Amino acid sequence: MGEARRILVTGGAGYVGTVVIPMLLERGHEVVILDNFLFGYGPVLHFATHPRVRIINGDVRRRADLAGALEGVDDVIHLAAIVGFPACAADENAAVSTNYESTQLLLELMGPQQRLIYASTGSCYGRAETFCDENTPINPLTVYARTKADSEEAILASPHAGNSVILRFATVFGAS
């Protein structure tokens, strides 16, 4: 199983986080959930009494919240985001601050040994006529895609680039 680690999951009460967290716990890891609970506590309420889970009601855009959540953490799975074209177009400032500026802040606050898994999006490719891979040029067409592509660039230009993995998710749908 490997060494147990302490993992921060930003946006842990979201669609992907609520699926990832049980997998981490099954593997013996400790989990710190940082979420603003915009959609309520329901998705993580069953973790509230778990001995290896710490739940923080906070915002990835606030330095104190993020710094506190990072204390003692080995790895970060950065899922917190305003997701998709409609939500980002409805409030572009919130999209930029949540999707891009929080990633910059995270990179600033992370320690040199902390590892990062960043949830990006296939939307970075824009319109594609064929299958895309790491070598396919990106062409972000929306605020959502631009904030994610800009975050990828920030990660790759940071001292954390060697400790980071960027995942470009395809559209996620169905029951979480």
List the helices and strands and how they pair.
Elements: E1 6-10, H1 17-26, E2 30-35, E3 53-57, H2 63-70, E4 75-78, H3 85-90, H4 92-109, E5 115-121, H5 143-157, E6 164-169
Parallel strand pairs: 1-2, 1-4, 2-3, 4-5, 5-6
Helix pairs in contact: 4-5
Short description:
The protein contains five helices and six strands.
Characterise the protein shown here.
The protein is α/β, with parallel strands linked by helices. It has 5 helices and 6 strands; from the N terminus they run βαββαβααβαβ. The protein has a 6-stranded parallel β-sheet with strand order 3-2-1-4-5-6, with helices on both faces. Strand 1, helix 1 (17-26) and strand 2 (30-35) form a beta-alpha-beta unit. The protein starts with 5 loop residues before the first strand and ends in a 7-residue tail after the last strand.
Key structural traits:
alpha/beta; 5 helices
User: How large is the radius of gyration?
Assistant: 16 Å
Please give the largest β-sheet: 6 strands, parallel
Reading side by side through the largest sheet, how are the strands ordered?
A: 3-2-1-4-5-6
Beta-strand content bin? 15-25%
H/I helix tally: 5
How many strands appear in the DSSP assignment? 6
Instruction: Compute the separation of the termini in Å.
Output: 25 Å
- Helical content stands at 25-40%
* Spans of at least 5 consecutive residues with low confidence: none
- What order do the SSEs take from the amino end to the carboxyl end, as H and E? EHEEHEHHEHE
Query: What structural category arises from helix and sheet content?
Result: alpha/beta
Shape: globular
**Mean pLDDT rating:** 90
